[in-house]
Design brief:
This protein is α+β, with helices and mostly antiparallel strands. The chain is 32% helix and 23% strand. It contains 6 helices and 6 strands.
Length: 167
C-alpha cells in the first residue's frame, strides 16, 4: 500500500511543510508526537495522509494538544495498518451529506461510495467547512492528492505543499 504523509505547520514565521514516515509508528499517540515534532512551536499542525489514490486522513493538532481527526472512508481502517492507527479510535461518523443542507453547486459531491468518519469540520475555521470537505472527498475524479492540494491552497499553505511534493 502506497502512503504519502505530509505535515503542514503554522507558526509565527508562517507555514512549513514536511513529509513524515509513519511506517514505524505503532499508535495514534506516536503519530501525534511525530506531528508535534515537525514544528514544536507551531500553533497549528495538520497532517494529510494519502493512501493508494483512494483514502485520505486528516489530523489537526492545535497548540500541540487538541487532536481532531477526519477520514474520507472508514474502509481505510480495514485496508491498512496505517489506516487502523489513524482512524481506529474514531467512532463518530462524519456528518452525512443529507445533514449538510443546501450549499453551492460546487459543494455537491457525486453519490459517494465512501463512508467518511470523524470531524468533517476540523478545518472550518480555516475556510474549509464540513460541507466543502465532504464534497471534495466525494467528487468524482478527485484523488486524495487533489483534495490535499485544494485544501492547502484554501488554508494558505499550497505553495509549501507543492514544493514538498516536487522535492
Amino acid at each position: 500500500m502506497s502512503i504519502f504523509a505530509a505535515a503542514v505547520a503554522r507558526s509565527k514565521s508562517g507555514w512549513t511543510a514536511s513529509e513524515l514516515d509513519l511506517s514505524g509508528l505503532a499508535d495514534i499517540d506516536e503519530v501525534v508526537d511525530a506531528l508535534r515534532d515537525t514544528e514544536p512551536d507551531a500553533d497549528l499542525a495538520v497532517l494529510f495522509v494519502e493512501s493508494d489514490d483512494e483514502y485520505l486522513a486528516i489530523l489537526r493538532l492545535d497548540e500541540g494538544e487538541d487532536l481532531r481527526v477526519f477520514g474520507s472512508d472508514s474502509a481505510f481502517t480495514e485496508e491498512s495498518r496505517i489506516g487502523s492507527v489513524l482512524l481506529g479510535e474514531v467512532e463518530t461518523p462524519a456528518l452525512g451529506l443529507d445533514d449538510l443542507g443546501s450549499g453551492d453547486e460546487d459543494d455537491k459531491p457525486a453519490e459517494p461510495d465512501a463512508d467518511p468518519v470523524g470531524d468533517a469540520d476540523l478545518l472550518g475555521d480555516l475556510g474549509v467547512g464540513a460541507q466543502r470537505l465532504l464534497a471534495l472527498c466525494g467528487m468524482e475524479g478527485m484523488l486524495p492528492s487533489d483534495v490535499t492540494a485544494e485544501i492547502c491552497q484554501r488554508i494558505g499553505c499550497g505553495d509549501e505543499m507543492e514544493e514538498l511534493r516536487e522535492a
